[in-house]
Design a protein that fits this description.
This protein is mainly alpha-helical and 158 residues long. It folds into 2 domains: 83 residues, no CATH class; 38 residues, no CATH class. Helices cover 56% and strands 10% of the residues. It has a two-stranded antiparallel sheet. Helix 1 runs antiparallel to helix 2.
Length: 158
């Protein structure tokens, strides 16, 4: 069954990239601030290393949260600018996995998936098996597919 559905297309930021950049900027700012710290101005019991560690922790986490906030704002703006499109969709109304597989194979071959459908699907199974016996070419191609990046489990018929 072919139908048309409405889809929304929009740009969306990658949160991890924004948060990572925010954390790196926070750490960089902490390093720059540590350069301007005079060790004589530090309170008793604190060293420059302890102060730098505290700055790294606070500004790194602050940058992480600010980067996430920027990503949220950009995502919110992207939802406002989303474009709506109407596209053709195929909705399979069957629950039988064999029937779904038969229809997808027929579509991949360029055939009408409803043309050879029987009442219980047995007619399509006998028709699908017949070309495999007459045409030995698919068996020869199986060896070439091993290096084409297609992984299949041992004993798989897919």
């Amino acid at each position: 069954m072919k139908d048309q559905i409405d889809v929304s297309v929009r740009r969306s930021p990658k949160y991890s990239v924004f948060m990572g950049i925010g954390a790196v900027l926070g750490i960089a700012i902490a390093g720059i601030l540590a350069i301007f710290v005079d060790p004589a101005d530090m309170p008793m019991g604190y060293t420059v290393a302890k102060g730098l560690g505290l700055l790294l922790l606070v500004l790194g986490i602050g940058g992480l949260f600010l980067g996430g906030l920027v990503a949220l704002i950009l995502d919110w703006r992207g939802r406002k600018k989303a474009k709506e499109f109407r596209v053709d969709a195929q909705i399979d109304m069957v629950d039988d996995p064999k029937e779904i597989a038969r229809r997808r194979i027929a579509e991949a071959r360029g055939e009408d998936p409803d043309a050879d459908a029987g009442d219980d699907g047995t007619a399509s199974a006998s028709q699908d098996a017949a070309p495999a016996v007459d045409d030995p070419a698919p068996a020869a191609d199986d060896g070439d597919d091993a290096g084409a990046g297609r992984d299949s489990a041992p004993g798989s018929t897919v």
